[in-house]
Amino acid sequence: MTAEELLQRYAAGERDFTGVKLSRVRLLDVNLSRAILREADLSNASLDWTILTYADLSHANLRGARLGEASLNGANLEGADLSGVVCGQTGFFDANLSHANLRRAILTETSFDDANLSYADFRGASDFRIYACKGAIFHETIMPDGSIRSNSS
Fold first, then answer.
1. Model pLDDT for residues 15-50, shown as the tens digit of each residue
2. DSSP, res 149
3. Nearest to residue 105, comparing CAs of 141, 77, 81, 140?
4. Of 23, 89, 87, whose CA–CA distance to 61 is shortest?
5. What does residue 3 show for φ and ψ, rounded to 5 degrees?
């Protein structure tokens, strides 16, 4: 499937793109809110300014993707591979990132407020700021320095 086909099908009302292979795709400044992209291959994709609010990206491969100023608020990224992603002013407000791999991610001005970060792995991530995680759930979360963080009971 090409980016153009995905956008045409999305515009026609289709939302389920489970397992789609779109490695290295350029989807800049598009609205894919509520899209179902479970187990999709979006590795090395350019998704800057893309709206993926409430999208289901569980177990998706986003390794090396660019997510500058993208909105993933309310998105399900459980078990997703976000290793090496490049974020800048990216929103993960109220997103589910449990069991997600964010190793070596660049997280400049990225917000995780109210997100579920349980069992997420941030080892080697840069620009991770705890103050950008207001209300976030930490349970056995691996922090950039390798330490383990859990919210107090």
1. 999 999 999 999 999 999 999 999 999 999 999 999
2. E
3. 81
4. 23
5. -60, -40
CB 77, CB 99: distance < 8 Å: no
Is there a contact between 103 and 124 (Cβ–Cβ < 8 Å)? Answer: yes
- Side-chain-side CA neighbours of residue 111 (13 Å): 15
pLDDT band at residue 130 using 50, 70 and 90 as cut-offs: confident
| The token pair that represents 120 in the structure block | 């997420």
Q: Which residues 6+ apart lie within 8 Å of 35 measured at CB? A: 10, 15, 17, 52, 55, 56
**DSSP 8-state secondary structure symbol assigned to residue 9:** H
Rounded Cα distance between 69 and 93, Å, is: 13
| Global pTM exceeds 0.90 | yes
Per-residue pLDDT tens digits for 72-81: 999 999 999 9
What is the residue-averaged pLDDT of the chain? 96
